[in-house]
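Obj: model holo form, ligand = fe (ii) ion.
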Amino acid sequence: MTDSVRDLLIVGLRDAHAMENQAEELMERQVDRLTDYPDIHSRLERHLAETRTQKKRLEDCLESCGESPSSIKDMAMSFTGNLAALGHAMANDEVLKNTFANDAFEHYEIAAYKSLLTLCSLSGMNGLAPALQESLREEEQMAKWVEDNVEKVTRDFVTRQRSTAGVAGVAS
Ligand SMILES: [Fe+2]
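Output (holo structure tokens):
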């Protein structure tokens, strides 16, 4: 029983590593284009750094389970595509769609870390829990920030649309 739960934990850790790779790609795609939104830009840069630390934590957890770095890399590739639709191409309301996507992604990550922590407990691998708890805490903080920012980013977006329209002589 414990062995099979341990196997589930290892699969979960690999999937979470792939998930964090995807998160890193999503944020890298967004961050350079958000210069008009300095609050989001700086918060995303901070979470990008956290995400890289989270990947390292997962690699350390996998090594503690006897997994080699090469197997981690292979699994990481397979996640790409699952949430590819969340990366929105340059569009008028890109900043809004990316905000919704980031909100969804952070909640996906929260669920994944809560599940991993349960598997740690069930398999007796409690030594991994503190690092995973730390990542969970960072995801929860980021999710809260994104949610709290939805109204502001929508208002900022409307203000920018209005000023652009004004410059073009199409004032509303
Ligand atoms: Fe995250």
